[in-house]
Predict the 3D structure of the following.
Amino acid sequence: MTILQAIVLGLVQGLTEFLPISSSGHLYLVPVLSGWKDPGAGFTAVIQLGTILAVFLYFGRDLGRVFMGWLRGLRGGEAARTHEARMGWAIALGTVPIALAGLAFEKSIDTHLRTPWVVGGSLIAFALVMGLAERVGRQERKWEDLTLRDGLTMGLWQCLALVPGSSRSGCTITGGLFGGIDRATAARFSFLLSVPAILASGLYKLYKERADLLGGGMMPTIVATVVAFVSGYAAIAFLMKFLQSRSTWVFVWYRVALGLVVLGLAFSGRLGGV
């Protein structure tokens, strides 16, 4: 991988990780269309660490309050009943499903599911589900209304992000909308919920594939991670402001259009299809 390729892939990762349009789908599509070698699921997971740093920077106060509230809550009493303590447990509870599913289906996720048919189909299918959530969700509940049940529910939705083309933020925000949570709050919790899962996945893949990623591929991996951090922060800032006054429909239609393009290219044989 060249430095230019690393910059492009890092930029794509950062911009698409938090926008509900699927980073895995774009990171699959860009190398194929450019004639580059597939960077692999390990590279993708590691450069996600850059986007997690962007979450820490943008949501540092939220993460600090939740973590300290959770720590104080361990002593019991009134401290255990604060909203921050509940959010800490909600994030922990919501992380369990994707941790179990990721370990159980790791081989399939890294190999069999990385096909144009899965990516294209997921882009379209989850776009339709997102559109349905946008239409039927009441969007009445705010940050203060979130519960442990919301954490588990959105955590189960997060499991669907293991399918290439689905989108982690898209799945969790959709789950929040179905639960009556407003868009901005659903996105805010989605980003906080992503921290343990992406951090654990990135560190796990970094250890497992350290020979390749820290050998000849060390510099491209570092460059892509840094670029992903910068572009990821920009994507978070944009989406949080965007969802305060606008719906997710633009992302729904983008996903449908991209999914049709992917399936069309696969059918023509340009993406390894029939």
Q: What stands out?
A: The mean pLDDT is 88. The radius of gyration is 18 Å.
